[in-house]
Sequence to fold (247 residues):
Amino acid sequence: MLEIPKISNEQLSCKAHKVLLSMLREGAFDQTGKLPPEEILAQKLGISRTVVRDVLAALESEGFITRRRGIGTIINKHVLNVRSRLDLEKEFMEEVTDSGYIPSIGFVIPKFSRANEEASRRLMIPQGNELIVVERLILASGKPAIYCIDHIPLNLIVDTGYTLRDLEPPIFDFLERYCHCSVEMDLTQIAPFLTDQHLASILDISEGSPILYLDELGYDINQKPVLWSKEFYAPGVFEFTVLRRKV
Fold:
């Protein structure tokens, strides 16, 4: 018998989110400056009002819309016009594209290593435990843009039928496919950084140049650290914005 996989609400939400965000950015609702009511959106998108509600909640948390009782769902055009935001988690290729460049891969170097004192502390594993470490260089229209070093505890891997080439796509894909987990949230430390000789040669800039450094720790749904990333951003490529809201 032919098996037809069911589409989960999560998949529907993801697809509907992409469609609505694309329409918002293209100005589909500029005439009114507001989104239609939930029931109309559900009808037009062919999904339930529950899914629509989830999507609107996500768009509001991201700052793209504001919902007010008695007023409706207001579109925050000034937020939509921002190309690069540090407060939103994006894959590197998408980040480069949204900044107006053509993304490509400079290199991906996966290897096995052992947790030093810092990795042990960040990932909450014993020092000396095995890690998978992936060095990755992302290019923006041929120019070095992002150099990232990802660290994954080897004991997270559930499906061992992988090769090092499976680490070449975005690291989140590997976590979901082979570790059966995903990064639900991350905490990021932001700091300036002066490049040493090694980093300067990778990013094709002068030694001692100031760059943006992000130290990210990703957690799964159980609040367990599953991914530690060190990200270095070349100067002159991105103009990052952070959306800050009252709490």
